[in-house]
Description:
By secondary structure, the protein is of the alpha+beta class. Helix content is 17%, strand content 43%. The chain folds into 2 domains: 5-39, no CATH class; 43-170, Alpha-Beta Complex (Nucleoside Triphosphate Pyrophosphohydrolase), CATH 3.90.79.10. The strands form 4 sheets. Strands 7-4-10-9 form a 4-stranded mixed beta sheet, with helices on both faces. Strands 1-2-3 form a 3-stranded antiparallel beta sheet, with no helix packed on it. A 3-stranded antiparallel beta sheet has the order 6-5-12. It is elongated and about 55 Å long.
Amino acid sequence: MPEPETLGTERIFQGKVFSVERDRVRLPNGREVAMDLVRHPRSVVLLPIPETNHIILIRQYRHSINRFLWELPAGSVDEGEEPEHAAVRECHEEIGQVPTTVVRLASLFPTPGFCDEEMIFYRLSGLSTATEKAHADEDEDIESKTFVLRDVREMIRRGEIVDMKTVAGLTLL
Length: 173
């Protein structure tokens, strides 16, 4: 059976964080269809472990759902940046700490039906307070807090944590 073939691409929207493209695709069955895709850079999702059976979460406002959420720290990998470096940078920026140990746990695609974002999950340990203050993104107002892991799992069961990357990330521990 032949592979799908992209016949053309049109950029529909270019934003600060992502773009939207419309591809014209010939499917293996010969049909030609239009497919709208969100193009998003890779991201890192952090599981910062300050001590055994504890994890640091952040609370931030998510305008798309008009709610404050507790979630794992995360951020985009900058162009030309290695994901491990992005994990260390985001740890500094979002929770004000620097890890001595960075372990890659998994790479997952949260919404492959329409978006190409790859989320790379890292366990960070050996955390120490950063000596210098990190630059915060203009759209972020973040609070960080250390939780006992079993309490976080109970928050998920009660529906208090609804962020999918957080729920998925915790299954990796």
